[in-house]
Design brief:
three-stranded mixed β-sheet; four-stranded antiparallel β-sheet; about 25% strand
Length: about 170
C-alpha cells in the first residue's frame, strides 16, 4: 500500500477549515473579571451553556447571541462586535459592610450599645447633608430631636395651622 501526501494534506486542510468555522468566547463578570459558568447561550442553531471556565464555542453561522444567567442581566450581542470576551453585569446588590451583633449579656451593656448606634446613625445623617442647603439641615435636626424633648410641639403645630388658615 502506497501512502500519498495529497490526501493527508486535504484532510489537514479540512480540519483547519472546520476549526476556523467556530469562535471561542469567554463569559466573565464585568466587575470582578471572574469567568461565569453555566451561562445559557442561545443563537441560530445553538443552544448551550458555558463550561466552568466560562468558555463556549460558537459556530460562525450565528450572527447574534443571547446570554442569560440567574444572577446576571441578560444580554443580546452581535457576534461581529465581540472579539473573545463577553461581559455580564451582576443583578445582585453588593453590600460594602454589614454589622451583625446580638443581645448583650447585661441589660445596661445593650442599652449603651443601642445609644452608641443611634449616635453613629445621627452623625452619618448629619455628615451626608449638603451644607449649601440650610433647610435640609434644620428639617433633619427637627426629626432627630425626640418628641418628648420638644416643649409644646402639638400646640406650636396648631398655632402654625391657624396662621396658615388665616392667611388663606
Amino acid at each position: 500500500m502506497k501512502f500519498t501526501p495529497i490526501p493527508l494534506a486535504l484532510i489537514l486542510l479540512l480540519c483547519c477549515v472546520q476549526a476556523t468555522a467556530q469562535k471561542r468566547l469567554k463569559v466573565v463578570d464585568v466587575e470582578t473579571m471572574i469567568p461565569i459558568g453555566e451561562v445559557n447561550v442561545i443563537g441560530k442553531g445553538l443552544s448551550a451553556q458555558t463550561d466552568s471556565m466560562g468558555l463556549i464555542l460558537v459556530p460562525d453561522s450565528c450572527l447574534s447571541l443571547s446570554f442569560s444567567h440567574v444572577n446576571y442581566e441578560s444580554r443580546l450581542i452581535n457576534i461581529e462586535e465581540v472579539r473573545d470576551t463577553v461581559f455580564l453585569i451582576s443583578k445582585l446588590l453588593n453590600l460594602k459592610e454589614v454589622v451583625v451583633f446580638g443581645h448583650a449579656q447585661y441589660r445596661d451593656d445593650f442599652k449603651a450599645l443601642k445609644k452608641q448606634l443611634r449616635m453613629q446613625k445621627t452623625e452619618a445623617q448629619l455628615a451626608a447633608i449638603d451644607p449649601s442647603s440650610g433647610g435640609n439641615l434644620l428639617a433633619l435636626i427637627g426629626r432627630l430631636i425626640p418628641k418628648k424633648w420638644k416643649k409644646n410641639s402639638r400646640q406650636a403645630r396648631k398655632e402654625r395651622l391657624k396662621r396658615i388658615l388665616e392667611d388663606y
